Structures are given as C-alpha cells and as structure tokens.
C-alpha cells in the first residue's frame, strides 16, 4: 500500500468482470481491488449479480477501510454471481462516510443499476439541482450518484442500458472512467479526453474492465488493450462490442500523474509503462540538475524509481535511507495537517547509518504545501547528512485540479506565491530542482497529457472557483 507524503493523494479504482459460463466472480473482484488498493484506501465495495437468475437481483457489500478489512471469507461467499463490479475510493468530492462508498446500487423502473466511478465531474452540482427539481432524491454527496441517477432516468426512454449511458455522457462534463452493470451486461466508458484510465482484459471465458492493467494480471487474466477515450464497451453473452460517444474533442489529455504518482509500477497505461516513465523522469532530473553527491535516494514509494533513474544517469550510487513501517494504518485520512505529519513520522523514519556524513540527493514526486518534505530534510540532517539536494519529478503546482486529482486550492500551494529559491529556503534544501513542463512529454513517452495543474491551461472550460464543496453545499 502506498501513501502520500507530499499531499497529492490517490484517486479511485474500478474493476468489473463478466463470466458467461456462470463462474462466481466475487473473489476475482476482491483480488482485483486489492491490486488497485494504492488508488484509494478510504472505502471499498463489491456488487454482483447472477445473470441466470431473476433480473435485478444484486448482492452487494461495502465498508470503510481497506479491501482486506472490509471483506473476509464469510461475506465474500455470500456474494454469488457471475457479473460484478468493485470500487476502491479516495474521496475528491463527498465526505468519507459509509453512504458515499461505491459501487452505487439503485433499484428503478427498469431493474437494478450498479455503478462505480473514477474521476470528477465539473458540472455535478448543476445537474444535481436539475434532477432535484424533477423530484430525484439523493442519498449521498458524491458526483457519482448524479451519474447513476441520470443513467436510470435516461434508461426509461432508451432501448438499452448502453444507450442510456451514452445519453448520460452527453450531459456530464469532466473526467470519468465508469463500470456499470445492468441485469445482464457489463458496460465500461471512458471520458472523451482520456483523463482517467480504463482497460480491457480476459480471463478464461470471462472479460474484465479495470483502472489499471496490474489488476487484470493480478487475478490471472490477460491484458488485451486500453479502452479508447470516448469509447463505450458493452460485455454480454454475445461477447464484447464497442460504441463511441458523440463528443469528439480536438485533443486528448491523459492525466500525467498516473505516470508520476498514481499508477502501480507494473501497470501499462495507454501503451506507456509506468516504470519506464518514472525512470525517464529521474534521468531527466539528473541531466537538468546535476550535483556532486554521494548517494541518490527516493521518498517511498513513488519517488524510488525516479531516484533510481537519477542514479543511472548520474553514476552516483542509489540507496535506501528510510525505513517504512508497513504495519501502521492509513495516514492521509487524518483530519488535520499536524496529525498527518505525526502519522508520517511513525510510518517513515531515517536510517542514520545510511546518511551519516553523506551528501544526499532526495527525489520525490511533488511538493504541495512543503511541510512534510521540510520535516524529512530536517530529520536527514539531524541524522548526520551533510547536504540534502531535492529533485522533484513534477513541475511546481500552480493551479487546482478539477478532474479528480486531490490538488488543493491555490492558497494551499506553496509554489503559487513563492519562487523556487523561496521554496528551497523554506524547506531547508541545499538545492532544489523541479521537472520542467516541457519535459513531461518525454516522461510520458509522447502521450498527449493534461498539464493544467502546472500551467492553468485546462483541456475544457472549468469553473472559476474551487468546486470541492459544491455538492456538499447543494444538499
């Protein structure tokens, strides 16, 4: 399980599977979600249905906590069905409460709808208000329920579930990767910009949809391909079929943070290896910001491979300078910054023998507020490090993200009001180097990416205010 030291947190993860031969899929969903645990540790859920049984009969269970905390042999055995979806959550909209866990399960005129969502809508509050004016009752404060309610509403006037999903996607704006089940189908859809990842896999006679390829291989499946931006995939007893959303933006905008931080090292997203991307990032930092040093090290976990790339390029030895206590609970859910800092101290400690008398290059994925990296540098020097040179495998954060990455408002971004030299002095580093915006294309293998949190150039028109509280205030 990974955790964030710098303040950028995981998104959500989705997993869906359909086995036309009737094999129970709950255990595969469990292991698939476990492989996606790095994407969200607040809550998780599984919903399954038996396609040979009565239409609309769904078994589901959800809870707050990690996958192995919420699910065990007894409740997994009760989830009987050959069609199902699962979700792990880190909240970017809506409180961390049981009511906001996914998948969402809704009974309506046409049966039962189950939906799991990774991403963030920028027009959710407006759509919710319109639905409420029409009499819709909401049970959660998450934008995912807006999507589910729209699908249910559109299904009444549609010939199929996939048509209802397509109509819904025409009215929502933002980032989304969805897995949806009706009584007999598994449907996946990816936003037209490709902001959020979604891929297709196969296991025996069954078909899988997942946020990352690592979840497919973790259950013994074979990765087939990435779902294309704007593609709808329909999986049923007839096989796999595709359709496309009518909106066709002039550009794609894949989230660069999948490669810098979010995704697991053994995943490949849109044809780009996450491991290779982080190596390239580290090598670039070594070329751009060389320094005389004795040891290259990374902040666990997301800084490690970039640090290794820096070491390869520079010829300076790579080493481990932190002990990570894997038995401590989740840290980033702590309600105050002080509590988060205290939790990190317990979870991560300096190894004095590794740093004493050495000049260190410390590589991390990002700096948001700057507090935690400042504390790490202080601890390294207290343990005897002579110098600490910081290298960051992303550019400075200057703007908030509206699409599901938990980058806070500008008032909380240290780089928004401070120069690189100001930040260097504030955190106590001997030197500081950030990834340049122009180098992001090299890191991502030439993939068209979203750079909005660094440049303020968003792939679509966004609100002129922080939308994180919009749904909370509309309830």
From TrEMBL:
Active site: 12
Listed Gene3D superfamilies: 3.40.50.2020, Glutamine Phosphoribosylpyrophosphate, subunit 1, domain 1
Domain of life: Bacteria
Catalysis performed (reactions): 5-phospho-beta-D-ribosylamine + L-glutamate + diphosphate = 5-phospho-alpha-D-ribose 1-diphosphate + L-glutamine + H2O
Cofactor needs: [4Fe-4S] cluster; Mg(2+)
Gene Ontology terms describing biological process: 'de novo' IMP biosynthetic process; purine nucleobase biosynthetic process
InterPro entries: GATase_2_dom, Ntn_hydrolases_N, PRTase-like, PRTase_dom, PurF, PurF_N
GO molecular function, one term: 4 iron, 4 sulfur cluster binding
Enzyme Commission designation: 2.4.2.14
Pfam families linked to this entry: GATase_7 (PF13537), Pribosyltran (PF00156)
Keywords in alphabetical order: 4Fe-4S, Glutamine amidotransferase, Glycosyltransferase, Iron, Iron-sulfur, Magnesium, Metal-binding, Purine biosynthesis, Transferase
Binding site for [4Fe-4S] cluster: 255, 401, 450, 453
Ligand binding (Mg(2+)): 302, 364-365
Domain Glutamine amidotransferase type-2: 12-238
Cofactor note: Binds 1 [4Fe-4S] cluster per subunit.
CDD domains cross-referenced by the UniProt entry: GPATase_N (cd00715), PRTases_typeI (cd06223)
Pathway: Purine metabolism; IMP biosynthesis via de novo pathway; N(1)-(5-phospho-D-ribosyl)glycinamide from 5-phospho-alpha-D-ribose 1-diphosphate: step 1/2
Family recorded in the similarity comment: In the C-terminal section; belongs to the purine/pyrimidine phosphoribosyltransferase family.
Purpose: Catalyzes the formation of phosphoribosylamine from phosphoribosylpyrophosphate (PRPP) and glutamine.
Name used for this protein in its record: Amidophosphoribosyltransferase
């Amino acid at each position: 399980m990974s955790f964030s030291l710098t303040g950028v947190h995981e998104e959500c993860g989705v997993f869906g599977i359909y086995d036309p031969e009737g094999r129970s899929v709950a255990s595969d969903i469990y292991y698939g979600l476990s492989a996606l645990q790095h994407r969200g540790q607040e809550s998780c859920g599984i919903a399954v249905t038996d396609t040979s049984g009565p239409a609309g009969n769904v078994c589901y269970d959800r809870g707050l906590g990690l996958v192995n905390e919420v699910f065990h042999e007894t409740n997994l055995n009760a989830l009987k069905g050959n069609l199902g979806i699962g979700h792990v959550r880190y909240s970017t909209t809506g409180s961390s409460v049981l009511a906001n866990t996914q998948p969402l399960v809704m009974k309506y005129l046409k049966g039962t709808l189950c939906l799991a969502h990774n991403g963030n809508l920028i027009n959710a509050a407006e759509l919710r208000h319109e639905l409420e004016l029409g009499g819709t009752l909401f049970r959660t404060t998450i934008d995912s329920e807006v999507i589910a309610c729209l699908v249910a509403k559109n299904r009444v006037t549609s010939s199929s579930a996939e048509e209802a999903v397509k109509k819904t996607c025409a009215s929502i704006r933002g980032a989304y990767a969805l897995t949806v089940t009706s009584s007999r189908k598994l449907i996946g859809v990816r936003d037209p910009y490709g902001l959020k990842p979604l891929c297709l896999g196969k296991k025996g006679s069954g078909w899988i949809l997942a946020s990352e390829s690592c979840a497919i291989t973790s259950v013994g499946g074979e990765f087939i391909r990435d779902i294309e931006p704007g593609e709808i995939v329909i999986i049923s007893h007839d096989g796999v079929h595709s359709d496309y959303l009518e909106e066709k933006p002039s550009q794609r905008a894949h989230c660069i943070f999948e490669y810098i931080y979010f995704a697991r090292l053994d995943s490949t997203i849109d044809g780009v290896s996450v491991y290779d991307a982080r190596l390239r990032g580290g090598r670039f930092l070594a070329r751009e910001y060389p320094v005389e040093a004795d040891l290259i090290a990374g902040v666990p976990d997301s800084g490690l491979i970039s640090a290794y790339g820096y070491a390869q390029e520079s010829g300076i030895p790579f080493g481990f300078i932190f002990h990570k206590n894997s038995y401590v609970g989740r840290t980033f859910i702590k309600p105050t910054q002080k509590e988060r800092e205290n939790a990190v101290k317990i979870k991560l400690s300096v190894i004095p023998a590794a740093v004493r008398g050495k000049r260190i290059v410390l590589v991390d994925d990002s700096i948001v507020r700057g507090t935690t990296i400042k504390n790490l540098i202080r601890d390294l020097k207290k343990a005897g490090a002579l110098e600490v040179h910081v290298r960051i495998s992303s550019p400075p954060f200057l703007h908030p993200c509206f699409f599901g990455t938990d980058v806070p408002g500008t008032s909380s971004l240290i780089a928004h009001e401070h120069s690189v030299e100001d930040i260097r002095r504030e955190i106590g580093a001997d030197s500081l180097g950030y990834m340049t915006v122009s180098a992001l294309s090299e890191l991502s293998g030439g993939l068209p990416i979203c750079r909005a949190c660094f440049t303020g150039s968003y792939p679509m028109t966004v609100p002129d205010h922080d939308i994180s509280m919009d749904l909370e205030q509309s309830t």
